[in-house]
């Protein structure tokens, strides 16, 4: 993982940093010497969000003002590491409450990130003089893991590497890992995972991590790990295939969240399940029109081989549902329809339980890491009708994210609490604190929701 270099304990050359919103800056400026006021006025600086003002001194830079907007939003501070001069160290010079200080530290950690596995960075980020609490470091680590894993090309982030990532976390926290791979998937009754992944030269697999104390509430996390999606025989066009290394973004979220749960010792019995495959084109690729009998016994007609995510997830969800957990959360880069509806920054939340949904919505508001609830409108199940099987894996283009969620819901046992997050896991362009490429979305709010839900 890209190391976290955002923070330092070396105060030798630290410069004062004033973190202020517009109102706070006006008050601060009125208390400064005339020369400082004139400097700020000459630059028409008013501490607008994502702005920086460097203050000159006799030997260069004397201090800086970081303009912020919503103090509850970690991204309000995330422009700092690359807006401030390269390699400089900064010490908070004005008082912030504990929550804002934590958000500053999280934002600095997120804003310092650049993916550097294949090239040397042009310039180092500015550092914050801070010793963040363990939870802050664990949250930042989880988010950066998602970014790293999603950014890594498939040749270096295939099913085996997803397994390695889960194993590393299991070993670090005393968890147990079980892997069912290749034709063993058929022997153990995971036919849809096998069907989607069988054409690749890399064996498909079900990755299962277990951790926690028996008797604690059972939390199940499920991730879609399609390490590359060609679309299968229903081949994607070139522009649609270009970034499909990110189609394991749901698995990245689930694994990173599992790592956070374990690191913070959330009082749960945890089961992490990742269906890891590559949807490749080859002589053994599954075909449109085939009928697959899923683990649950529901027969599915393949209407489109590019609707493969719900196929690998349905066996994984059936598997965890058999264990009757207290809560099931699944994460998936599932539909383009969710992005058309909500754009890249708002993951679509589907849930069969209002309490769970409201807890996540509230957590999203509190952390400024939002989700948007979408309806499980069951009359739209008609769009998944098949003439020869119980269900089709795709169908009409109408309500694409809704029908995908309804498909998944068929594999959740009645009475079980479940939520599905359709997440983009990607930044299309550069924004302050959000470099282009892989992104963790609703991960911080998921963690906040789980803390509320399990009393941590």
From TrEMBL:
A single GO cellular-component term on record: cytoplasm
Top-level taxon of the source organism: Bacteria
TM spans (from-to): none
InterPro entries: Leucine_aapep/pepB, Macro_dom-like, Peptidase_M17_C, Peptidase_M17_N_1
Domain Cytosol aminopeptidase: 304-311
Pfam families: Peptidase_M17 (PF00883), Peptidase_M17_N_1 (PF21337)
Gene Ontology MF terms: manganese ion binding; metalloaminopeptidase activity
Keyword Flavoprotein set for record: no
Keyword set, alphabetical order: Aminopeptidase, Hydrolase, Manganese, Protease
Annotated GO biological process: proteolysis
Signal peptide residues on this chain, from the entry's feature table: none
Sequence similarity: Belongs to the peptidase M17 family.
Protein name: Cytochrome C oxidase subunit II
Organism: Stenotrophomonas terrae
